[in-house]
């Protein structure tokens, strides 16, 4: 009697590979699901930025359309999360007027912020003879003539969230802080050597 081998038993090594694949995939899926579940339960909130004050050392427009500005700002950030820490990576701060950057970017020191902690920075932002568009120069001249100029202090950088021992990937952070600078009807702005400090306490709009 002849027994035929139909080949239904398969390759044992191939079956082993598939089992390893299924177990590995299930493990990865379980880990990702756990991270997602923890994330949804904790619901991380965006940091809260406040522009506390600004000391203007120079802010003057000269022909042809050149702006010189030197400002020291006090900026605070609060972590509103009770169970999540925040890593601040590569934060750059600069001043802008009507969406145009008017100072160089100043790098803030990288730092870690614990649960509900507050971090305060006091950087200088400055620009010497920065060219501005003619229409912006005209608008800036009008604002100086009325005595008040609205500039925006902006923070652009990266943050990471820390939950227990888990640290997330980098997320882009952008904060926009309005600052109304009162020149007291000085058409020429603030000249170098006559610093004026403004208490602002302006909340910043933060996107993460």
From TrEMBL:
<dbReference type="GO" id="GO:0009506">
    <property type="term" value="C:plasmodesma"/>
</dbReference>
<dbReference type="InterPro" id="IPR044839">
    <property type="entry name" value="NDR1-like"/>
</dbReference>
<keyword id="KW-0472">Membrane</keyword>
<keyword id="KW-0812">Transmembrane</keyword>
<dbReference type="InterPro" id="IPR004864">
    <property type="entry name" value="LEA_2"/>
</dbReference>
<dbReference type="GO" id="GO:0005886">
    <property type="term" value="C:plasma membrane"/>
</dbReference>
<feature type="domain" description="Late embryogenesis abundant protein LEA-2 subgroup">
    <location>
        <begin position="74"/>
        <end position="176"/>
    </location>
</feature>
<dbReference type="Pfam" id="PF03168">
    <property type="entry name" value="LEA_2"/>
</dbReference>
<feature type="transmembrane region" description="Helical">
    <location>
        <begin position="20"/>
        <end position="42"/>
    </location>
</feature>
<keyword id="KW-1133">Transmembrane helix</keyword>
<dbReference type="GO" id="GO:0098542">
    <property type="term" value="P:defense response to other organism"/>
</dbReference>
<protein>
    <submittedName>
        <fullName>NDR1/HIN1-like 1</fullName>
    </submittedName>
</protein>
